[in-house]
Write a structure and sequence with these properties.
There is one protein chain. The protein is built from eleven helices and 18 strands. It is α/β, with parallel strands linked by helices. It has two domains: 172 residues, Acetylglutamate kinase-like (Carbamate kinase); 145 residues, VC0802-like. The strands form four sheets. It has an eight-stranded mixed beta sheet with strand order 3-6-2-1-9-11-12-10, with helices on both faces. It has a six-stranded antiparallel beta sheet with strand order 14-15-13-16-18-17. A two-stranded antiparallel sheet has the order 4-5. The model has no long low-confidence stretch (mean pLDDT 95). The structure holds adenosine-5'-diphosphate (ADP), aspartic acid (ASP) and magnesium ion.
Amino acid sequence: MALIVQKYGGSSVADAGKIKNVAQRIAATRDEGKQVVVVVSAMGDTTNYLIGKALEITDRPDLREFDALLSTGEQMSMALLAMALKNMGYEAISLSGAQAGIRTDATYSQARILAVESKRVVRELEKGNIGIVAGFQGITDEMDITTLGRGGSDTTAVALSASLGAEICQIYTDVEGVYTADPRLVPEAQKLAEIGYDEMLEMASYGAGVMHNRAVELGALFNIPILVASSFTQSPGTLIHGGASMEVRNKVRGIAHDLDVAKVTMVGVPDRPGISAAIFQPLARAGVSVDTIVQNASIDNITDLTFTVAKSDLTKAMEVVEPIAKSIGARECVSDSRLGKISIIGTGMQNTPGYAARMFGALSELDINIQLITTSEIRITCIISDTEVKKAVRALHRALELEIPE
Ligand code: ADP
Ligand code: ASP
Ligand code: MG
């Protein structure tokens, strides 16, 4: 029997009425004769509520206990949804991440899935049950509960799809698909009918929160078609896939933005072998994930080195690099936590010159100062003041004519 994995996000299960709506949609899929595994997120703002509770106790919660707490949000949803389905006369069973065999490493709050041991899920499907799995969580070899990073339920869904050999992974959310930019910020943003894994991965990694980036990575690795669609309408949604796209009119498929950027600059760094390793190895050991790194050309063997991190990692990053700066004889370390980034993304840009110039032109018309620039083959990113990101996204969307349907 064909198997479908469906994932419902927090706003789709925010209250009892919405959980019952989701149960109806799952029942309709079951009635089509499909086996169904459902992944659920925590109800509405529950994860933020739980984080708030931890911060009422301490501003540096123990990470193991933090994950044990956060995982309870998804467990609430799974039980309520299973109850709703049973109440409608369907056979359903809820399973925590551990029960569903989601094995992870022990990096609390940012754990990576190492394997999915889906024997239990398969057994339940064979018994005729709809499996309702708590997203966002897994279990270590020591049987400790971990979480996968904010938005991680998408990754649970794609990992289960790969392990179970699902025909498709359907991600149901509060928008009708993947748009050319966040539709809450740019009302004229266009829904994309389809997008490749590579473009979607850059979108997700550079701030398009509609998909967890690790979920897209796993989708590409195991070639799982992923449909992003609304849990409230029957609109067809966006298919994320690995097939070649037809030539599209707009070479830029989308604009992503991220308001969570902080910058550290080490000024007056002696330019000699081993310096970068001396700085970035301790940062990695401290669990600080570094994004952009820029080193200036040196004058008289002295250079400046800048890197960016998430705002929440800035204090930790400064605690690590300040003593290093002293020990290697750098002049000082300065930081700025009020930054954001804006990115244009599209595989078509590879063979078409002039996109960087158009992007910089649009930002300069708004008098926006570009602090750092990074690129990949299919992306150009500018780091700018966080207060200017939103107007920059709207202006760039217009400048690149993304409001015109493809
Ligand atoms: P869920 O709780 O269902 O996982 P999320 O809040 O994680 O939902 O993701 C959906 C949100 O992603 C939308 O409400 C939208 O504001 C945001 N978003 C950001 N960029 C995009 C984009 N390019 N296309 C669609 N939605 C986007
Ligand atoms: N509930 C978690 C979060 O809010 C995971 C998810 O929704 O995907 O980040
Ligand atoms: Mg999400």
